[in-house]
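The instructor's notes for this session suggest beginning with a concrete chain rather than abstract definitions. Hand out the sequence below and ask the class to guess, before any prediction is shown, which regions might be ordered.
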Amino acid sequence: MNRRIPPLSLLTSLLLAAPLAQADEGQWQPYQLPQLQKELKQLGIAIPAQQLADLSKHPMSAIVSLGGCSASFVSNAGLVVTNHHCAYGAVQRNSSASRNLIADGFLAKTRAEELPAGPSDRIYVTDKVENVTAQVSGGLDAKLSGAERHKQIQNRIKALIAECEQDKAYRCSVPSFHRGLEYYRIRQLAIRDVRLVYAPSDKIGNYGGEVDNFEWPRHTGDFAFLRAYVGKDGRPADPSPDNVPYHSKDFLVVSAAGLKNGDPILLAGYPGRTSRYKLPVEIRQARDVSYPRRVAESQADVATIAQATAGNAEWAVRYAAVVKSINNGMKKNQGLMDGFARKDIAAIKDGQDAEFRRWFAAHGQAADPSLLAELDAAIADDLALTEQEFAMSVATQSELYRAARTLYRAALERKKPDAERELGYQERDQALIKARLTRLEQSLVPIVDQARWQAALQRFAKLPAAVHPQGLDALLPAPDAVPALYAATELSSTVQRLAWLGKDAAAIEQASDPLLRMAVANQALAATMEQRRKDVDGTLERVIPRYMQAFIAFKKSQGKPVYPDANSTLRVTFGSVAPYTPRDGISKGPFTTVEGILEKHTGKEPFNAPQALRDAVQAKRYGDYRDAVLGTVPVNFLSSADTTGGNSGSAVMNKRGELVGLNFDSTYESVTKDWYFDTAITRAIHVDIRYMLWVMQQIDHADNLLKEMTIKGLPGRKG
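After discussion, reveal the predicted structure:
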């Protein structure tokens, strides 16, 4: 007898009924943790799972998002600790060739000395999560076209967001989980006055640079501090000298006692994206097409920036954060390619997919006979469109041209009632649009942007004709015509960009500015591409949830873990401090020490440790941060926690929920965990809190911050 797929109303119990296969795997939503109490207890976590599930209680109430990175409060005066590379943009925006805070580091000894992080920087405090699946996808007509279905879902999401944001202190979102099977409404306090407090020199914060990125052993002091400011009424406010530090309801206590091999850890943050439930065809597309193209594109773009900024220190500083971001993504994509070559994940997924399809034929196909055929067709359409979207992104590789497109699109959307505008262009989004246009003032040089676009247009021309969106070639400038466009545009001026932001579509359509005219000319094609995406997404939103519902039932039948792919929402993972064996006969980790910094030191970037640090190590001035087993100060350590991009800056906590480190990277062998979690070799890399405290005390003399934090485990201090 065929068994029907469980109805959506049973999804939550289905998700939670599946036992864990490995404690280390899983990026769990907080509400799921009570069902994992047994595993947490076996691991040695002392905090009750029910407490971990409560966003209003310690320690989850101290975990925050930076909108791309993770962080946590470490004092009741809004002091936030995160990674150095997460604060890198703030450091860069406050730097110049004559005052290079990237190279020299920065420490505000007083609150008055703290610097603005940037116009678009935010600190988000999640305080409420609601399951709104029924409100988003319930009751939709199965006969709707993809575009119509997508429109209805988006309209429902916008209504839920508008209802949630009646209090303007909050920023709300409705992301999907399990590829559209569930939707949750997430409310976050959005603090928009963020200031840079402390960042060590990149000789510490980025020690090893791109050479060591994703590598082990590692010796990077990847940490920095920001502060959240609000109005005197305690509510978020625009940046102002009159603002006061945010009084955070909770903060993490720092433990200087440290960890040892095998100790349990908790990790909480906002992981970006994983793809563990994607099909074999999607893996092969990524492995064979998407990642190689992205790596080649990144390599070429970085080379162009290097050539365009050569010999100009000021320009190099302006593009430092851009280059760092591109390099980080490039190395991750290269690591994914190497990981796919090392282990045939597609073949593993082939076996899993075949097993699922056999199970589905016996247990679900009678209830949904067309599912698999619809699924394969929808995925094929999505992959084809994604390649064209990539090509279009290459063809429009110009910050100023993208600004022109944003200005015109914003003007077109303003013609509509707010509720009918596209997400990203509603009234709630205007401040962020303005901030993005303003931020270019600190991170753009027109002649460099011009060089990047010229080179990108040449690369676009070489992409296969099949991935060129129809009609785009005729609308693009020839590479040698780009300099004239930049000579004539006024959009390189922040004042002019912001002036155009307030004008209506008719005014832009009559503009003489060449980039605005190009944006107007290209809008019809852009709209066509967007409509195609809506149609594809609407079809996916109809088909993928049915697949995921069946797949979850299949996984449950095997006793396998069921957790949603990462989607930049708050998650908790747990594991232990652990070494690993990447190859036969080689064991790595789990700790590195300050002596390793001296071993790597060459006096040249990226292995140029500060003299003060080298002197302190040579003199063995370890102070209170000497590890009893290692006999020195630990720098970085490994754990088996399940992490990905976006987890940068995530709090690493001991069994009592005390801060013992910050997540900042993964080993090179682990990069493919975005697609497949391999327990044996997957390791996350963390900066040890003892190294942070040691640098703060011995090297940078950040005594004011050490005093502000609550630190346990130090002689002469309570705790």
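Then share the key points. Residues 1-23 have pLDDT under 50 and may be disordered. Residues 253 and 710 are 5 Å apart (CA to CA).
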